[in-house]
Every structure is written in C-alpha cells, then in structure tokens.
Design goal:
Strands 7, 8, 9, 10, 12, 13, 15, 16, 20 and 21 form a 10-stranded antiparallel β-sheet that branches. An 8-stranded parallel β-sheet has the order 29-28-27-24-23-22-31-30. The chain has 15 helices and 39 strands. The chain folds into 3 domains: about 85-315, alpha-galactosidase from lactobacil brevis (Beta-galactosidase, Chain A, domain 5, Distorted Sandwich), CATH 2.70.98; about 320-630, TIM Barrel, CATH 3.20.20.70; about 650-740, Immunoglobulin-like (Sandwich), CATH 2.60.40. It is globular, with a radius of gyration of 27 Å. The longest helix has 23 residues, at about 615-635. It has about 750 residues and is an alpha+beta fold. Bound molecules: (2R,3S,4R,5S)-2-(hydroxymethyl)piperidine-3,4,5-triol (DGJ). The site of (2R,3S,4R,5S)-2-(hydroxymethyl)piperidine-3,4,5-triol (DGJ) has 12 residues, from loops.
Length: about 750
C-alpha cells in the first residue's frame, strides 16, 4: 500500500485509489496525483507523471544549485505563501513582529501500520490502515514539520494532518496551520457545500469554481448550522452514479475553513483546517502543535459513489464500531411533548404509553434540574429539581428501568446561567471579554472550557448524576454561539487569546473522553440547537446527532439528503413529531412521518397520550416492522435514486444489504398531470437470486438490476384512477427481499 521509490517518490495505493507525491528540486514536496488506482508504477511511469511543463515566468534563486525554479505553478503538498507562490499557503508563522517564510525541506520518513482509537482527540483509526509521516526541516529557523498521510483498505480516503515543532530558542506564533491540502491540475468543477441555518441545516448548494477563492467557514466556535466543514468538487455532468468528485472533510468541531483557490492557469488548491481568522498559537521552545485530521475522498461514481466512501469511512474509521453491532434504541423524547411543563407523573404516563407501543428508551430533555421552568435559568446546576421529581431522579429513572426501558438525560454541559452558584462563585469561569459590552445568547453564558478546572467541575457534576440515576443515554446540547471570545484562564497564563477557540473545543473533547472512559456503555447523542455541530469530531464520540430542531418530515427530506452526502444513516436521530408541526405548522400524515423517520435511528417526540387509538395502533405496527428491519435501516448501504435538484419535489431513497432492499418514495406536493413514469435499476442485488417485491410479485435479480424497479404509478397524478396515494406529502415503501430460489 505504501511505496517509497528512490527515496524520492511517495506512493500510497490500495487497489481503489492512488495518491502520489515526490520531492521538488528544492526538497519541498510536490503533489503529483490523487485519483483512480494506477497500480504498480515503475521509474518510467514516475518520470512521465512528474514531468513538469513550466507555466510561470518569474523564478527564484533557492540555492547555489537551484537558480531558475519557481513554486508559482507547482502542485504542492503543503505550500507556504510568499516564495514565488502567491496563492494562499497552508502555514504561516511569526516571531515577534516578523513574518516568517519557512523553507521546509525533506529530511526522512516513517511508515506505521494500523491506527489505534485514542479517546483524547477525535481522529481516524483502523487496523488495516497504513500511515506515512514525512519529516521536513527548516534548518535556519530550527523548525520541524511532520506531515502524515493514512490510507485505508478498500477506500479512497486519505487522511492528513500536520504537526509543527519548535526546536529553536525563540518563541514563535503559529498563525495558520492547515490540516490538508489538495492541489488539482484543473478547475472544471462545481463547488458543493452543505449550507443553511438553524432549522434548515445542510442543504446542498453548488456554484461553479472560478478564478479566486471560493470558501466556507465558521467563526462561531462550532462547526455551525450555517456551513459544514464538508465540501466537494463535483464534475459538472455528475449523476447519482457517474462523474468524478473530490471531497474533503475535517475531523473537527470548532472554527474551520474549507476553501478552493483557482489560480491564473486554472489549477485548484483545496485547503481545509482550523480557521486562521481566529487562531494564534504560542509555540515556546520545544513545544509542538498538531492539527486536527482532514479527510480527502475521491470517486468516479457520482453521488452514490461518494456516499459509499464517506459513509464507510465514518462508520468504520471514525465512529466507534461497537455501535454497528449494538442496536440503537427507539426513543421517546419529551421535548416537543411537554417542553418545560412536566412533572414525574406526567412523564411516567408518557413513558408507560411509549412502552406499550414498543419504544425502548425514555429521554428526559431540558428542564429536569435546578429551577428551570424556562430557558433562562439553572444551567450549570446539575442537581434535580425536586419540585418536579420529589423523590429524586434515581427514583424516576428506576421506574423507567422497571418498564424495561433505557433512561436518557439531557445536559448542556458547556453553559451556565447567571442565577447559579457556579456562575456566582466563579465569575471568571465564563467566556467573557473584559469590555463592559458583551452579548448573551439564550440568556446563558458559555463556560470557559479552555480551563481544565471548569471541565473537571462539569465532569464531576455529570458523573454524579449518571451514576446515581443509572443513565444509559445522554443528549448533549449546546445552544449558543461564542461571542466576544475571551478566556480569563488563558489570560492568566499569558497565552494569546488566539488559542481560545481551539482549546475550547479540546475541552469539549476532554469531557467526552472522560465521560466515555468512566461510562463506556453510555450512548451520547450530539446536539447543538439541532444540527449546529454535526461533524466528524462529534461523531467520534457521539454515534448519532439530532440533525435539526426542524422535525417536520418534509423539511427533513432536504436536511437528510444534504447531510447524507457526508455522514451515514446511522448518525441521524430521526423523530416522528406531532402535527401541526411545531416549527413550520405543516400537517402531514403519520405514514409519511414514519416512513421518512425510519431511514436511520428512529424516535418519537410528541405526546403519545394525545393520539387516537388508530394512530397508536399504526405506531405499534410500525415499530414492530422497524425492529425487524432496524439493522438494515441503520447500517445498510444508502443510495439516492433520483438526482438532487434544488427544487426537488419527489425523493427516492434506498437502503440495501445482501438480502434485502427498502426503497422509499416521497412526494412533497401533488402536481396535476405529473407522473414519475420511471424505471429504477437497483444496485447491490445478486443477479442469480429471485426477489419478492412487497411480499407479492417475484422478479429475477438481474431484471431488477438491468430493467429496473417499475415505479408503478403510485403517485400517478396524471391519472387519479390509478394513483394509489394522492394529495400532498405522500410516501410509499417497497421492500425487496431475496427468496430462497436460485435461477
Ligand atoms: C435545543 C435542542 O435542539 C432541542 O431538541 C431541545 O433539546 C432544546 N434545545 C432544549 O432546550
């Protein structure tokens, strides 16, 4: 998988992808290729690929021997700005007031097999992986740069990170250190991003690349509702199953930047990492700084090919693999059922009803602690509100457990309300600038998680509750962005405030790591006012995330279609909620809501006691069916059957394993004289097997593969007589199952 040829060419390949780089005449690293596997390469192949045809005119004297050389048009692995290359660089450093133009030259390399899963930082892992680290030195400035590249079995993913070490006597400031760079020889792509806002996260947005910088970023202290670190460069003729896509993501949850710069020759430079706009890290002599990991993906098989890569990578190399074997419980969450208005009796009624319907876990949301009857109080005081639970939380959770249900509990660990002892005793534990002007969000302050003492305090409080109430599941929320970022703790240590955002998110990871080390069986669901922190950093610890505060099934079609480009089905908490829906006031039928929510981990978030007997029966039957198909719906292979369109009205999703396929068709609005008159060739079937469609018709696998599934006009708006479902917000499912008859 990893070849080093003539101590000059570094070649990562695994039968599905190749990544090749070499040494430039000035001993920096040149990027040569990332794409479809090139197989074994000999010296002739390598010299052919590395032949450079000069585009740039100006040259630089790098040394006595290298006089006429320029970096301006070179594809590079880790470029620095300012020495003939005027594109943005991946690293910028300063000493005192002086900007450095570092000159990192190749020194040696190291190859390691396998990558352990270490809790301290979110990072990729995998036994079958191999990692090459290239050590580069800037002798004059006594700096070392380590660039690591990992490759995994059967995947096109290449994971990168960078580390800088100060071997000199002088303190330096790291102003920028990107995680990954990909220089490409062309720019004929659309830039795809997952954009949105609160209650409409991760919608697919595309725009063509043009000369200059196209970028997305977050400066909010979290990866954000507005942008996601995931980006893709997509062939202009891409379809669901054909076309080249290069994509990138970060295993990180804080301020990030993901950008592509197109130069005057139409070459593209993709870079991703911590956002330099809010970053400045002090590196004293002998100190080092390491970036989070970035991941590159490649496919020539369109959006479905991309999802095969991003999903497998997240499931097998980021999220703890144990969550593929352990079933995700079907939850009832009381938030939209009660909001803050509950007591033990009311909740027990909900839990008992949930149990009768087959629900497996009761999640007690916001409002169980302190004196929290609205969102303006008690965060940071993680002791039970005895007005609501007179016999304590352990008593309530005991009753839930007696129903043979798991018990889940909401926390917002990173926040504090002004009315708490925690705030009053430790006013210096919050993120707050010494200015008199400051902004408060949701009437709460952000705790200074850069300070380990703060993290320890919250850990102790949470651990006490988890132990006492035998909590099985946590919903970890985070409901405001960080404004006027300033850490009194960093100030006391004389560290630059530019370290704050990164140290804050490290504190978040530290709390996750401590909780999961003490309580290894805990399932932590991520959340940040819905999907404000849906990223690979959080998924490293939380196998699933509440994707949006918008629980309307029609809205979720877009949110999920976007999110699925980067993250697998198993990462969604999909809740069926009441109608009219609380966010958009839309009324949809229960069948539609359940058929959308079943793609991934299923849950309910409504007052079940208000439902009619027929609705309860419908839910009961649905849950029985879901349990039989849960493994497929959570861990199966996902495909989009209809092409993404910004004005999409009909969606077709499929999820498959070797024996079974479930296909969901969803339509938002009925339109006159419209028909989905299509054939859907199905993938992942065995051509030698027979399949049964919805327990009735039997068809050969090869017919379904080649001729396709006939969409039998269920939405046939052009002919109301043959339409089996009509009206807005309709759906139907196909279940295609292999039967024991070989042909
Ligand atoms: C925001 C979350 O996204 C909701 O699901 C709910 O937990 C509220 N916070 C509680 O305050």
């Amino acid at each position: 998988m990893l070849d080093v040829i003539d101590s000059r060419y570094f070649y990562l390949h695994n039968g599905v992808v190749s990544y090749l780089f070499d040494l430039l005449p000035n001993q920096q690293l040149e990027h040569l290729y990332y794409g479809a596997d090139l197989g074994n390469l000999d010296r002739d192949d390598l010299s052919y690929i590395s032949l450079h045809i000069n585009k740039a005119s100006g040259t630089v004297k790098f040394s006595k021997e290298i006089k006429n050389f320029s970096l301006a048009d070179r594809m590079q692995e880790y470029p620095t700005y300012g020495t003939s290359d005027f594109r943005e660089g991946a690293v910028s450093l300063e000493t005192g007031e002086t900007y450095l133009y570092p000159d990192f030259k190749y020194d040696h390399f190291k190859i390691e097999k396998g990558k352990k899963r270490e809790m301290a930082q979110p990072a990729s892992y995998g036994n079958g992986s191999e990692t090459i680290t290239i050590y580069l030195k800037d002798v004059e400035r006594q700096l070392e740069l380590e660039l690591s590249y990992s490759i995994f079995e059967n995947l096109t993913a290449i994971v990168r990170k960078a580390k800088i070490i100060n071997h000199g006597q002088q303190e330096i400031k790291v102003k920028n250190l990107q995680s990954g760079v990909l220089d490409l020889p062309n720019s004929d792509y659309n830039f795809l991003q997952l954009s949105g806002a609160w209650v409409k996260e991760r919608h697919i947005t595309t725009r063509p690349l043009t000369q200059g910088i196209t970028k997305i970023e977050s400066l909010r202290g979290a990866s954000s509702h507005q942008e996601n670190p995931f980006i893709a460069l997509v062939d202009k003729n891409v379809t669901n199953d054909t076309g080249t896509i290069y994509a990138s993501n970060l295993i990180y949850s804080g301020n990030f930047v993901s950008q592509v710069e197109v130069d005057e020759w139409g070459q593209s430079r993709l870079m991703t990492g911590i956002n330099p706009a809010t970053f400045c890290w002090k590196l004293a002599p002998n100190e080092e700084f390491c970036t989070p990991e970035s991941v590159l993906f490649y496919t020539s098989h369109g959006f479905n090919g991309l999802m095969r890569q991003t999903h497998t990578f997240a499931k097998n190399h980021v999220i703890d693999q144990k969550w593929q074997k352990q079933e995700r419980p079907i939850v009832i969450n009381n938030w939209e059922a009660t909001y803050f208005d509950f007591d033990e009796k009311k909740l027990m009624k909900l839990a008992t009803q949930a149990k009768e319907l087959g629900i497996e876990c009761f999640v007690l949301d916001d409002g169980w602690f302190g004196k929290r009857d609205s969102d303006n109080s008690s965060l940071g005081n993680w002791t039970v509100d005895t007005r609501k639970f007179p016999q304590g939380l352990a008593h309530f959770s005991g009753q839930v457990h007696r129903l043979k249900m798991k018990f889940g509990l909401w926390f917002e660990p990173e926040m504090v309300s002004p009315d708490t002892e925690l705030y009053q005793e430790h006013p210096d534990w919050i993120v707050r600038h010494p200015y008199s002007r400051y902004s408060v969000g949701r009437r709460q302050y952000v705790l200074d998680f850069a300070n380990p003492e703060v993290v320890e305090n919250i850990y102790e409080q949470m651990a006490t509750v988890i132990k006492e109430a035998k909590v099985d599941y946590i919903k970890w929320d985070m409901n405001r962005n960080i404004t006027e970022a300033y850490s009194p703790y960093l100030h006391s240590l004389n560290h630059p405030q530019g370290e704050f955002f990164h140290r804050y998110i490290q504190g978040v990871y530290q709390l996750y790591a401590k909780l999961l080390t003490t309580f290894p069986n805990l399932l932590i669901e991520g959340c940040a006012s819905g999907g404000g922190r849906f990223d690979l950093g959080i998924l490293f610890y939380s196998p699933q995330i509440w994707p949006s505060d918008d629980s309307d099934a029609a809205e979720r079609l877009d949110i999920m279609s976007g999110t699925l480009l980067a993250y697998p089905l198993s990462t969604f908490s999909n809740h069926v909620s009441a109608v009219p829906n609380d966010q958009v006031k839309r009324v949809t039928n229960l069948k539609f809501r359940q058929e959308v929510a079943c793609f991934g981990p299923l849950g309910y978030e409504l007052d079940l006691n208000k439902l009619s007997t027929t609705e309860k029966e419908e839910i009961k039957e649905w849950i029985k069916w879901y349990k039989k198909n849960r493994n497929l719906l959570v861990n199966g292979i996902f495909d989009q059957l209809l092409k993404f369109d910004p004005a999409q009205n009909v969606y077709a999703w499929s999820v498959s394993n070797s024996n079974k396929q479930i296909i969901g068709f969803y339509r938002k609005f009925a339109r006159p004289n419209e028909s989905l008159d299509q054939y859907f060739p199905l993938k992942h079937l065995n051509s030698r097997k027979q399949y049964q469609i919805n327990g009735r018709q039997t068809v050969a696998g090869r017919v379904l593969q080649k001729y396709g599934l006939r969409e039998p006009y269920q939405f046939n708006a052009s002919n109301p007589d043959t339409a089996q479902v009509s009206g807005d917000f309709q759906s139907y499912l196909y279940q295609i199952k292999a039967i024991d008859r070989k042909i």
